[in-house]
Amino acid sequence: MVRHKVRIRFQKAGDLRWVSHHDLMRCFERMLRRSELPFASTEGFHPHPRLVFALSLALGVVGLDEVAELELTEDVPTHAVQQRLTQQSPAGLNIVSVRKIDRKVNAQVRLARYRVPLPLTPPTDLSRRLDDLLGATECWVERSRPQPRRLNVRPYVAGVRLASDSLEMDLIVTPTGAARPEEIARLLGLAEWLEQGVVIERTRLELHDEH
Question: Which of 18, 143, 145, 189 holds its CA 20 to 30 A away from the CA of 58?
Answer without folding.
Answer: 189
